[in-house]
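Aim 2 progress. For Single-stranded DNA-binding protein, the working sequence is reproduced below.
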Amino acid sequence: MATTPSIIMRGFVGTDPKLFAVHSRTGQSSGCSFRLGASRSYWDAASQQWKARPSTWLPVHCYGVLAQNVAGSIRKGDSVLVSGYLETDEWGEGDDKHSLLVLKAQSMGHDLLFGTSTYRRLRKTQNATTKSYLSIDQLTAPVSTTDSKAQSGVNITQDTCPEDAAELLDEYTTSQEINADGGSDENTANEEKNSVDADFLVGAEAM
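Predicted structure tokens for this construct:
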């Protein structure tokens, strides 16, 4: 069985990445596209200087979590390294049939030869039915607090990330259930648990 070889392409981002919806039998996901320009330089002995060859331009497509991360991290003009494979997209029929060579990215990052970058690891959440990642907005958004939450005994501050807030909430509700079993007022425990808003529940976009 023939396989498509992977390639690594170094270049600069020619257009700001754009997100688009991808529909399939398994549901809806995200896609992202931008144009990547790559050029090579050569030494011209006659002029005794480096000269650039014409740039090669390719559209880059990526999907899922990678698409969301690219849209939140990559900008026009950035130097990047893209790992993926080349694929020909075709559409139309008969005389109106068109084709386009596309670099389908499987991983991507800034080229640190030309600049610096800051890395933020995505936090993975999992329950009985889904495995998902927190979005960039969820990772960077602070968790708000109110007087009722402060009195609940959950030690959550403005700097608490959403996933840590969820863990603290789980610990708190578990301790309240144990106390209720030990003879405390069950109604009071339920009221205290309900005072913790859904603000602390971590929502994640399903893969």
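Residues 162-181 form the longest helix (20 residues). This observation will guide construct design in the next reporting period.
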